[in-house]
Design brief:
Keywords: Glycosyltransferase, Transferase. InterPro entries: UDP-glycosyltransferase (IPR050271), UDP_glucos_trans (IPR002213). This protein is mainly alpha-helical and 205 residues long. The chain has helices at residues 24-39, 80-87, 98-107, 120-130, 146-165, 170-184, 188-203, and strands at 52-55, 72-75, 92-94, 111-113, 133-135. The strands form two sheets. A three-stranded parallel β-sheet has the order 3-4-5, with helices on both faces. Strand 3, helix 3 and strand 4 (111-113) form a beta-alpha-beta unit. Helix 1 (24-39) packs across helix 5 (146-165) and helix 2 (80-87) runs parallel beside helix 3 (98-107). The chain is globular and about 65 Å long.
């Protein structure tokens, strides 16, 4: 869910709301519970149940009162880029910060995006628009009971997970493969440097 939301930032961090209805902790806990329920060892979406790897961040209460299924591994941090490239996961649950968003696009894995703030919000919208995944927006401030808001958000994450991992999955997979292929043909850093140098030469008097 990102280093900021799981960190101690006073505006966007673990105990902060970013102006929404829920804190970083409440958002993360809802996502973890939904993920464990849908992809845990009793998973009905994939057979056999998948290996679920979770990067929880540094908080001591990152998994407070949350039961971890046997097929789920939780760490404070993971080598995300290597894991994505080597495992090519069936689903990448992410906040869609620019780095993880581009990393996931480059390897062609379907997304479940749970944005927190900033660039994560338009990236989540783009993921859904491109057809490469589903998004679950952070709840806005509401007069509803906070427990009801958390429950509704958690249900949204569960529903989105079932949609991406359910049948037929090919629609999401085909889109992600197409996007990864387009990015692969773009030329990467080398092409970007070439363009910048060419433009710099043009601008010189």
């Amino acid at each position: 869910m990102g280093t900021v939301v799981t960190g101690d930032d006073t505006v966007h961090g673990w105990t902060s709301t970013s102006g929404s209805a829920l804190t970083g902790k409440q958002i993360c806990h809802a996502v973890y519970r939904a993920d464990f329920a849908e992809q845990g060892d009793s998973c009905k979406l994939l057979s056999p149940p998948p290996l679920v790897v979770v990067s929880t961040g540094p908080q001591p209460d990152a998994l407070e009162l949350i039961e971890r299924p046997e097929n789920c591994l939780c760490f404070k941090s993971v080598p995300q880029v290597d894991l994505l490239r080597l495992a090519k996961p069936a689903l990448f649950v992410t906040n869609a910060g620019q780095n993880p968003f581009m990393e996931s696009l480059s390897i062609g894995t379907p997304l479940l995006v749970c944005p927190g703030f900033g660039d994560q919000i338009p990236n989540a919208a783009n993921a859904q628009k491109l057809g490469i995944g589903e998004k679950v927006d952070r709840p806005t401030q509401s007069e509803a009971d906070i427990a009801e808001v958390v429950a509704a958000y958690e249900a949204g994450v569960s529903n989105a997970t079932r949609k991406v991992l359910g049948e037929p999955r090919e629609a999401f997979l085909d889109k992600t493969i197409d996007v990864a292929a387009e990015l692969g043909q773009a030329g990467g850093v080398e092409k970007a440097v070439h363009i910048l140098l060419a433009e710099t030469k043009k601008s010189k008097p």
